[in-house]
Amino acid sequence: PKLWLVVPAAGIGQRMQAECPKQYLRINSRFILDITLSRLLDSVPFSGCMVALNSADHWWPDTGASADRRIQTCTGGTERSDSVRAALLALAEQVAEDDWVLVHDAARPCVHPGDLHKLVETLSDHPVGGLLAAPVADTLKKVGKGTNPEVLETVDRGHLWRALTPQMFRYRMLVNALERAHESGHRVTDESSAMEFSGNMPLLVEGRPDNIKVTVPADLDLAGFILSRF
Ligand code: CTP
Ligand code: MG
């Protein structure tokens, strides 16, 4: 089966509170979206790449990626899962049912080539697919309501992992899982949760904890530092 790449990049970056969506902020004078796409496309031989953009996006033509013939674009949706569904639909004519799709957040420019290879190699014979994830490092508290809530209990973090991207699934299984979640009104914040909702159990592949999602202003400096090291 072939490998395809889907990059949801249709968010508005509300938590970043910048003058443009965070994927168009620059790190070392490059757009975050350009860094993310080149790291992915330079590491894995994808057959094609679909980037979901906001309908109000007017920054894309300024990216280096917009001149890359391997990359196609489509219009995303209200939620991240809507953007991913739109991108998968836009690929429909080109893919085979059991081809692999890697879905990766535009806002994760620090993804490491070693992790990409590890994910693809580990899952190549897996019936469902899976995702990069990292064990939780902090002690976790379950709390009550309010701004400074009371601690109810400490949660055992031994079996808790943070979901990262890329997440890698078979094209048809993923489309069906996302459609089913959408039709049931079940909100999914990543592809794995849609697969779980359909009763398919994805595999966790341990990834580097520095594959951060650039979310708040402080993450820009952090991502710049991480990128300076490899
Ligand atoms: N995304 C998308 N379509 C949406 C919402 C999000 O394609 N309707 C993308 C974002 O562009 C981002 C990724 O999904 O690359 C992860 O989402 P998130 O980090 O939440 O980005 P935003 O939604 O843009 O940020 P915020 O939640 O702070 O508004
Ligand atoms: Mg969001």
Short description:
The protein is an alpha/beta fold and 230 residues long. It has helices at 32-41, 80-91, 113-123, 171-184, 191-197, 218-228, and strands at 3-9, 26-27, 30-31, 48-53, 71-75, 100-103, 129-135, 140-143, 151-155, 161-170, 203-206.
Notes on the structure:
There is one protein chain. With 230 residues, the protein is of the alpha/beta class. The chain has a single domain, classed as Spore Coat Polysaccharide Biosynthesis Protein SpsA, Chain A (Alpha-Beta Complex). The protein is built from six helices and eleven strands. The chain has helices spanning 32-41, 80-91, 113-123, 171-184, 191-197, 218-228; strands at residues 3-9, 26-27, 30-31, 48-53, 71-75, 100-103, 129-135, 140-143, 151-155, 161-170, 203-206. A seven-stranded mixed beta sheet has the order 5-4-1-6-10-7-11, with helices on both faces. Strands 2-3 form a two-stranded antiparallel ribbon. Strands 8-9 form a two-stranded antiparallel sheet. A hairpin with a 7-residue loop joins β8 (140-143) and β9. The protein is globular. The mean pLDDT is 97. The structure holds cytidine-5'-triphosphate (CTP) and magnesium ion. Cytidine-5'-triphosphate binds at residues 8-15, 21, 23, 52, 76-80, 83, 105-107, 213, 215.
Provide the descriptors you would attach to this structure in a database record.
Spore Coat Polysaccharide Biosynthesis Protein SpsA, Chain A; binds magnesium ion; 6 helices; IspD/TarI_cytidylyltransf_bact; binds cytidine-5'-triphosphate; two-stranded antiparallel sheet; globular; alpha/beta; 230 residues; seven-stranded mixed β-sheet
